[in-house]
Amino acid sequence: MTTPGYESMQTVIAGLSDPQNAPVASVDSVPGPIDTLLNSIESNNDETQKMVASAPQPAKASVWVIQVASYDREGDAQAYANKLKRDGFDAYVSIAITGSKTRYRVEIGPLDTRNEALAMQKNLRAGQHVENSIVLSKALSERR
């Protein structure tokens, strides 16, 4: 009496001692949905491309902004943001409450990476003469 699978086990053991004759798994031997998926990926057909393109992308949790000013009065902050907008920057006013005081911050962004924000900060120093600015990472829920 032989144990089921014993012959294939012997083949594997023989393959270890003789790598030239070792069994090799192939895509053809994979049954079911995995086989379909692998064949689809190998053929790189339109349906596979559509599935990949429509796959949900991970949501970004934060963005980078540059705070260029902070004012006591909203009108002053809005005037400066409007000037920056006229000069081609994506500027806006955000409200920050610290203790009993409300501050109106002029920010530029969003930018995808810290390096983009640092480059923008450098451009602001040169072109807009913004000497004091802060590069910040903000949660998307905090923006505007």
CATH topology of the largest domain, by name, is: Alpha-Beta Plaits
Strand content: 15-25%
Spans of at least 5 consecutive residues whose pLDDT stays below 50 are none
The assembly state of the depicted protein chains is single chain
Q: How would you characterize the largest beta sheet?
A: 4 strands, antiparallel
Radius of gyration: 30 Å
What is the CATH architecture term of the largest domain? Answer: 2-Layer Sandwich
Return the average pLDDT rounded to an integer: 76
- SSE class: alpha+beta
Tally of separate helices: 5
Strands of the largest sheet, in order across it? 2-3-1-4
Span of the ends, CA to CA: 77 Å
**Can you tell me the CATH superfamily of the largest domain?**
Sporulation related repeat
Helix content: 40-55%
Note the run of SSEs as H and E.
Answer: HHHEHEEHE
Give the overall shape. Answer: elongated
CATH class of the largest domain equals Alpha Beta
For the secondary structure, the number of strands is: 4
Number of domains: 2
Summed up, what is this model?
The chain has 144 residues and is an alpha+beta fold. It has 2 domains: 6-54, no CATH class; 62-142, 2-Layer Sandwich (Alpha-Beta Plaits), CATH 3.30.70.1070.
Index terms:
alpha+beta; Alpha-Beta Plaits; 2 domains; 144 residues
Account of the 3D structure:
The protein has 144 residues and is an alpha+beta fold. It has 2 domains: 6-54, no CATH class; 62-142, Sporulation related repeat (Alpha-Beta Plaits, 2-Layer Sandwich). The protein has helices at residues 6-17, 32-43, 46-54, 74-86, 114-128; strands at 62-71, 91-98, 101-111, 134-139. Strands 2-3-1-4 form a 4-stranded antiparallel beta sheet, covered by helices on one side. The N and C termini lie far apart (77 Å). The model has no long low-confidence stretch (mean pLDDT 76).
